[in-house]
Amino acid sequence: MEKSNDNFFEKSYIVARLIPYGRVTSYGAIAKYLGTARSARMVGWAMNASHNDDSVPAHRVVNRKGLLTGKHHFDGTNLMQQLLESEGIEVIDNQIQNFRSVFWDPSNELIIS
DNA sequence: AGTGTGACACTGG
DNA sequence: TCCAGTGCCACAC
Fold first, then answer.
1. CATH topology for the A4-109 domain
2. Largest Cα–Cα distance of chain A, in whole Å?
3. Alpha-helical runs (H) found in chain A
4. pLDDT tens across A11-61, in order?
């Protein structure tokens, strides 16, 4: 049986993996989707631990402003931006262009059983 | 059990 | 939308 200890982290990974190609979401959106909208920061923390899991596209998760706040935590300084641009997302100065257009809200598109 | 921390979000100006 | 300040929750020690 699963341990409810890391439930929050696990769910964060699940949602992150569900982010479609060429789309991004915010920490708050994921947190809200998990039922803890106030724990948006924890999502970032979870992503930090997700480095252990290569299956988690943390580069597709940004803050609500569309700013690549977490790119600093990536291997390279521009790695996160490179990945996003590689998916067709325009990023200028750590700021996602047309953020609203590429924004993907999990609670608006998904439902975890 | 308490303190510190954080890849955020919200509010007011 | 931006800036500054405040609140928030969960995790690590």
1. Arc Repressor Mutant, subunit A (1.10.10)
2. 45
3. 7-18, 27-34, 40-49, 79-86, 99-102, 106-109
4. 899 999 999 999 999 999 999 998 888 889 999 989 988 887 888 999 999
pTM of the predicted structure, to 2 decimals:
0.89
Does the CB of A39 fall within 7 Å of any strand B atom?
Answer: yes
C strand bases under 7 Å from protein CB: 1-2, 7-12
Question: Alpha carbon of A13 to those of A45, A47, A59, A96: distances in Å?
Answer: 11, 7, 12, 22
Question: A8 is written with which tokens?
Answer: 């929050």
Helices in A35-94 by DSSP H: which ranges?
40-49, 79-86
Question: Which residue has the least CA–C1' distance to nucleotide C12?
Answer: A45
> CA dist A54 to A58, A59, A93, A95, A96, Å?
9, 11, 25, 24, 23
**Nucleotide whose C1' lies closest to the alpha carbon of residue A27:** B8
A56 token code pair = 């988690």
